[in-house]
Specification:
The protein is α/β, with parallel strands linked by helices. The chain folds into two domains: 240 residues, Type I PLP-dependent aspartate aminotransferase-like (Major domain) (Aspartate Aminotransferase, domain 2, 3-Layer(aba) Sandwich); 122 residues, Aspartate Aminotransferase, domain 1. It has 13 helices and 14 strands. Helix 1 runs antiparallel to helix 9, helix 2 packs parallel to helix 9 and helix 10 runs parallel beside helix 13.
Amino acid sequence: MMPWLGEEEARAAADAVLSGWVAQGPRVAAFERAFAERVGAEHGIAVSSCTAALHLALVALGLGPGDEVVVPSLSFIATANAVRYVGARPVFADVEGATGNLTTATVDAVRTPRTKAVLVVHQGGVPADVDALRAACADWDVPLVEDAACAIGSTVGGKSVGHGALIAAWSFHPRKVITTGEGGMVTTDDARWAERLRRLREHGMNASAAQRHASSKPILESYLEVGYNYRMTDIQAAVGLVQLGKLDEMVARRRALAARYEALLHNVPGLTPVRDPAHGQGNFQSYWVLPAEDFPVSRDGLLAALAAAGISARRGIMASHLEPAYEGHPSAPLPVTERISRDSLILPLFHTMTEAQQDRVVAVLREQARR
């Protein structure tokens, strides 16, 4: 993954620096409004990372010790860690093989009377079937939190991921489709949650620094609860506004590259590429392939062959329950998660990728398939 950044982002960042307002301020507010409008949410709350966004989402739900939250193990470890931050217990559920996402069946298999929330991940930008999950969670009387870290520009039923979500968390890390260097966002339609989240990201203050500076009268702030330092800077937001304006072009390019990969890989036996699910379209933030179990070369062998050809690929999505941080953590059998994590690899896909570069990647895979 290589971010698509240029002169426009550089000028926007420079303008923020020259304005003298570099901390959270007017550009952050503008980015929040633009992002929320793009995903169809009433409120956007910019924060320092998607991990911070997930943490605040779970704080807003009032989760704590004794509560369980169903999460996929097939996700970056921050998903499970955020549950631990509030003192709750992540319960790992399996995923379906085609999308790498939770389903109502995999959630129901690990749900208990202590389940107080479900945290679904739109893995690699592949949209989860949130219509089904929202309906099931309503029946179970538990909230559904959406980890949309990778999913800006992905859609479900023709609408943006995050549209109609109770609460969703987003990432602007450089490996995501749009970036602010680091940074994240919480989106929600709940005005009360939004107000509280704005306080929590800024030490629990009842008046932000921007509000105090904008006032013609002195404001003596109060600290209403224990909060966090999860702010985004105006420099980051300035870059984010430019990136958001490029989103449609970025997604269109990524989808075109993904379609070309699929066409080229059609005649490479034993490789199953990630595809759009029936209920939506992905942004192809990651393009992964899953070799058949009898493929002549292991996943690590494929990575080595690609590296020898000067091609940087990555292992597939991690399985959090297998990491030392979660050693001994109770878990149901997770055969699909373990298979995808063990055997899949993520192929290079970035905005400026050329056809010749794609051809080189596929040539190595084709050669390895013939071994």
